[in-house]
Amino acid sequence: MPARFFITDLVRFCPMVLMAFVLSGGPSCSEKHVDKKVESESKKKTPAERMQQFVIDISNYARQLRPGFVVIPQNGPELGFVNADTGKDFAHNYLDAIDAFAVEELFYNGEYAPDEYRIKLLERLATEKPVMAAEFIKDDKNVADAVAKCQEKGFLCYPRSEENYHYQLVPTKVENENAEDITSMSQVKNYLYLINNAKFDNKEDLINQISKTNFDMITIDLFFYRNNAYTKDEIERLKKKANGGKRLVICYMNIGAAEKWRYYWRPLWQIGDPEWIAKPYEGYEEEFWVKYWDPEWRNIIFGNDDSYLKKIIDAGFDGVFLDNTEAYYFLYKDK
Predict the structure, then answer these.
(1) Are the CB atoms for 290 and 277 separated by under 8 Å?
(2) The whole model's pTM is what?
């Protein structure tokens, strides 16, 4: 990973190299003080409130640099309510920070298996923000039903087959295809979710396949493979639909779990070292739930020129897709 100072490094070297470090773009002592303040305030919050604040802070940082930057959290729709309590009012500060809610397997999880609890919850949230549902459908004959059920509730539907379970294919059919220019989430009528590049030979292959489609919005990773990030020119190419219309290009970023294949991962890291790597992510052996309020993890994700989010913004993406916001639940569900 690129050379980077952690907070403990800054304490050790400040003030001797502070001026040089600040001029080079690193965090200052005052920024470190802010981190400590954030950490102190975070300890007073519930796990859900900590995640709400994390998303809000990510959004504020991005929109200061890029007004209108789109922020879409995936899963954890309860966060749309005060302290994630669905019996309370909407968490308006959280809703102001995001542009849509994304969820998975709402009506179909292979077979028809409607999640009535989440459906009713998202019906309420849909009065405030668009809802996107990635449905997993084993039998192609059920695709039309999945789309219809989502549309009936006012939700966007991304139907994916068993072959596309891991979001690695570009479907040939686009639901509600149109030639309109798309500049905000409120205009999106369909979307592509493509974060696994296993089926593509190289970046150019992936770009060419997407460029032949008319999806209103696409979500891809910042990297084609490991450290092979998309350039600003490549992202600009993806912003044009085959029919000439404009579309949104959104970048996937996992904020609730650390991934061993990412540029930030260090070879000796393991659960508990650093302390914020909390527990295994069941079903994904190279991912780990994190203590997302920890200053070191926050600094990896956003707030400085070497952060993940700054790389996404610099690459020219229109927004960010925040995965695993439900970490607040999975960190504690076995305790």
Answers:
(1) yes
(2) 0.87
